[in-house]
Design brief:
The structure is a single chain. With 223 residues, the protein is an alpha/beta fold. The protein folds into two domains: 38 residues, no CATH class; 176 residues, 3-Layer(aba) Sandwich (Beta-carbonic Anhydrase, Chain A), CATH 3.40.1050.10. 42% of the residues lie in helices and 17% in strands. Strands 2-1-3-4-5-6 form a six-stranded mixed sheet. The chain is globular, with a radius of gyration of 19 Å. 26% of the residues are buried. The model has no long low-confidence stretch (mean pLDDT 92). The structure holds zinc ion (ZN). Zinc ion (ZN) binds next to α4.
């Protein structure tokens, strides 16, 4: 077989693909075959950041067909706004609910989020107004204003507070979608907020009852 030149595909991707074929696909080819002939039926949708360090499939050790994932800058859910504009995350939500029938939606924030850090620092770059990102992040600027930096809190502490508050804000925005709030009221859909600590590999979950964040135990739950 002829070699693929790196102009066609970066060699790191070529090597990664070769490993996927040799190991993961080879081990699970039957499952891939089954998934190909059946419709996908993941029970969980994850809304995560584009950040390369916080991939939901890695953190949740998920295989093909297990998670319906949409990733965007800073893992934001915009408010419900059927205004005829292009809303990729809202479209993904609509498909997840009406096309797949997911039972859980997880908003996944993460530590050291560049988008959140820039919004919290209120710098113009790289979140300039042109062409898209300024508008995209405008909701987070409101979140920043609502999260004061307590005495003694440094910039990275403040960024973590904003990262988490932004997840909570996205949960509120999820509820602005009428079909989401209806399903949640009927207890046919549950909404969850998590925050992944990139450095420590730890996952924290938002407890809406108490308003606190709780460390998720890393031992497997009892069956
Ligand atoms: Zn991020």
């Amino acid at each position: 077989m002829s070699e693929i030149h790196s102009d066609l595909l970066p060699s790191a991707l070529r090597e990664g693909y070769a490993k996927f074929r040799q190991f993961k696909y080879a081990r699970h080819s039957q499952r891939y075959m089954e998934l190909a002939v059946k419709n996908q039926k993941p029970s969980t949708m994850v809304i995560a950041c584009c950040d390369s360090r916080a991939a939901p499939e890695t953190v949740f050790d998920a295989s093909a067909g297990e998670l319906f994932v949409v990733r965007n800058v800073a893992n934001l859910v915009p408010p419900y706004a059927p205004d005829g504009e292009r809303h990729s995350t809202s479209a993904a939500l609509e498909f997840a609910i009406h096309g797949i029938g997911v039972q859980h939606i997880v908003v996944m924030g993460h530590g050291r989020c560049g988008g959140i850090a820039a919004a919290a620092a209120q710098v113009q770059q790289p979140l300039s107004k042109s062409d898209f990102i300024g508008k995209w992040m405008s909701d987070v600027r409101d979140v920043v204003k609502s999260v004061p930096c307590p005495q003694g809190c440094n910039a990275s502490d403040h960024h973590r507070l904003v990262e988490r508050a932004s997840v909570v804000h996205s949960l509120e925005n999820l509820r602005s979608f009428p079909w989401i709030s209806t399903l949640e009221t009927r207890k046919e859909l549950s909404l969850h907020g998590v925050w992944f600590d990139v450095a420590l590999g730890e996952l924290h979950v938002f407890d809406e009852q108490s308003g606190n964040w709780r460390l998720v135990p890393s031992e497997a739950p009892q069956a």
